[in-house]
Amino acid sequence: MYLIEKNKMKEYHTHIEINAPRNEVWNSLTSFENYGEWNPLVSELTGDISEGGTINTRIVPLNKTFSVKLLSYRENEEIIWKGRQVASFLLAGKHYYRLKEHKENVTILEHGEYFTGFLSTFIPKRLLEKMEKAFNDHNVALKQRIEK
Q: Are residues 78 and 98 in contact, defined by beta-carbon separation less than 8 angstroms?
């Protein structure tokens, strides 16, 4: 896990090793209807689950729902969505999940977000740290759900 403030762009990245094959991690990660049962980061994800589709995500630590565009939905590989506040040049966030096969029946979940736009330079470090903690809590909860 690490937090970066490079060229004033804000981003954070987390990862966790899950003792399960990649398709099992994918199936749990994409069971969006069950998010409210276990997910401390995103309690709800609904909408058009296809590349280019619009989805609504309820982000628990911010207590806010965002309407975002699904940029990538590649089975057993990655999910990427991008949200914006007013306009992308002001503030946008690109959220990603990537699954990497580490060894037989072990998957690495890479999970993070990049913020861009003029207003991203003003995101307080404490808010980024809060979100990074929520990402890590999400990763641990997903691992526990799968490995139980």
A: yes
- Residues spanned by the domain of 7: 2-147
Contact indicator for 48, 61 with CB cutoff of 8 Å:
no
- For the stretch 59-113, pLDDT in tens is 998 899 999 999 999 999 999 999 988 788 899 999 999 999 999 999 999 999 9
CATH code of 54's domain: 3.30.530.20
Cα 67 → chain centroid: 14
| Number of domain units in the chain | 1
Q: What sign does the dihedral 100-18-134-36 (CA atoms) show?
A: positive
Residue type, 17: E
Question: From the CB of residue 136, how many other CB atoms can be counted at a distance below 10 Å?
Answer: 18
Full-model pTM: 0.89
